[in-house]
Amino acid sequence: MPVDTTQLKMDPSKPTVLLVTDSAAIHSGFAQVVRNIFRRIWSNRRWNIVQHGWWHQKPIEKTPWSIISTQRDTTNPSVVDMRDKYGAVSFSEVVEAVKPEVVWCMGDPWMVSVVLNNPRRHTYRAIFYCPVDGAPTNYEPWAIIKEADIVVPYLPWGKKVLERWQPKARIVDPIPHGVDTELYKPCSTFDRDATRKNLGVGPQDVLMTSVSRNQTRKNLPALIELSYYLRTGDYQVCSVCGHAYRNPYDYHMGRPSGQKAMCTSPLCWYDKLSGPSMLPGTPHPNFYYYIHTPINDLEDSSWKLLNVLDTFGLGVKVDDKIRYPGFLWNESLKIVHGINEQELALLYASSDVFALPSTGEGFGLPLLEAMSCGVPVLTSNVSSHPDFTGEAGHVVPCGHYVCETLSGYYRGYMDLDLGLDALLDLVDNPETRREHGRRAREVALEYDWNKIATRWVSLIDEQVKLAAPGRRWQKTVSV
Ligand SMILES: [Zn+2]
To answer: For residue 58, how far is its CA from the centre of ligand 1 (angstroms)?
Structure first.
């Protein structure tokens, strides 16, 4: 299928930047990033911008640049031809038609390998905006990244990992993702109360929210488990150091084990002869956890979340249906479509705590969006999280690391006793929430997309200049 360049809005006197990643017209993490960066750059009009878009379909979002779709299935044009899902078949044709000086690509290394290793590779400079959500990155698909002219990590953590495990790659300073601080902002009490009322949560209740797909590395069972301890008060608090400890739970029998937790802090100054004196925890019946994940993800994706709720005995039979008091989700939430960004911003801004206990993230954009809404966060001290969350909430240390199948990454699992401590601090102290929330907004303002986009302009300009003139495509418009 030859590419029809007459439809592309291109000025032959200008250099061309070809974007290769998820189509900017759809809803996905990569789509959101490419849309936000290049929408702001577009107004500069320095270069022609054209995209070779993965998963392109009937546009949900408008983009000012032309998007050439990867191939469709010949028998059913509404679905993507899986052989060409990342442009393995059509990318070379697109390069020949568009003649880019620079190709800017974003995705996992195996997604962008056709860009970095291509017969026409000598005709363009390749910038790879590189997500790193785990380490070590020493296994085979990563080797391709040394073919990029520059590799731009998202955050300092990603840079450190790549320098350690792919030392031959040309790694430059990281450029973080950003956030639209005009859209993601604190909301009025009126809007907050209305949003919470829709969820069935009152103004005085405490609402924790997570926003993510139910993927293994998002570790959502940790949040259900913490919510169990909060709602039931099935924990002990050390009367000397004040730390909370979960009473051991019998996961197989689905009930408390009957044992009571003791203080295990090596720093606690309790009397070593008489032992720590522990106080029973406090039930928090006004604590709610809203799980914002597509409804088909609740059971059919990686973690069996309803199973987890049942394990913790959180189900109650009401009118022949099992309900889970204190746990909320949206029955109509679907993959890809989700809710619009205005609604999402209101959801963040109406929450008291935003939680993302991932075992590894390339960035963790929902954390930044929640921070921009002035909401304190609860996350794990692993991968990218501590690079930008700082004093915007609690970054909880990992209790253990588990080597993941296939990737070989070591995934960090939040220590749940420390997680319980952190969550109690946020839930019990409105003043702490306000202070962390204020800091969160301040930090987020530093990551406004307008500031981030200008960093890309100078970096791409440099690469356009470096595109060797002798090797450049002849800028003739083919008829
Ligand atoms: Zn203690």
So the answer is: 58
How far, in Å, from the CA of 275 to the mean position of ligand 1? 10
Q: How far is the CA of 278 from the centre of ligand 1 (A)?
A: 8
Cα–Cα distance measured from residue 451 to residue 455, given in angstroms and rounded to the nearest whole number? 7
DSSP 223-240: HHHHHHHHHH--EEEETT
Which helix (H) or strand (E) segment holds residue 256: the answer is strand 255-256
Q: Tens of pLDDT along 17-72? A: 999 999 999 888 899 999 999 999 988 778 999 999 999 987 888 899 999 999 88
pLDDT digits (tens, 9 = 90+) for 68-125: 999 888 888 778 889 999 999 999 999 999 999 999 999 999 999 999 999 999 999 9
Q: Quick check: 65 and 42 in contact, CB under 8 A? A: yes
3-state secondary structure at position 285: coil
Distance, in Å, from the CA atom of 124 to the CA atom of 463, rounded to the nearest integer, reads 9
Ligand 1 centroid–CA 267 distance in Å is: 8
Cis preceding-peptide flag for 176 (omega within 30 of 0): no
Dihedral, 377, 378, 379, 385 alpha carbons, nearest 10: 20
Which element (helix H / strand E) includes 400? strand 398-403
Distance 423 CA to ligand 1 centre (A): 18
Q: What is the mean pLDDT of the chain?
A: 92
Token look-up 């993927």 returns: 215
Spell out the SS3 assignment of 259-284. Answer: CCCCCCCCCCCCCCCCCCCEEECCCC
Cα-Cα-Cα-Cα dihedral sign, residues 340, 341, 343, 347: positive
CA dist 301 and 382 (Å) reads 23
Q: What are phi and psi of 125, to 5 degrees?
A: -85, 140
In the chain the domains, ranked by start, together with CATH numbers, are: 5-178+450-471 (3.40.50.11930), 189-233+282-447 (3.40.50.2000)
Distance 375 CA to ligand 1 centre (A): 30
Is residue 349 a contact partner of residue 375, using CB atoms and an 8 Å limit?
A: yes
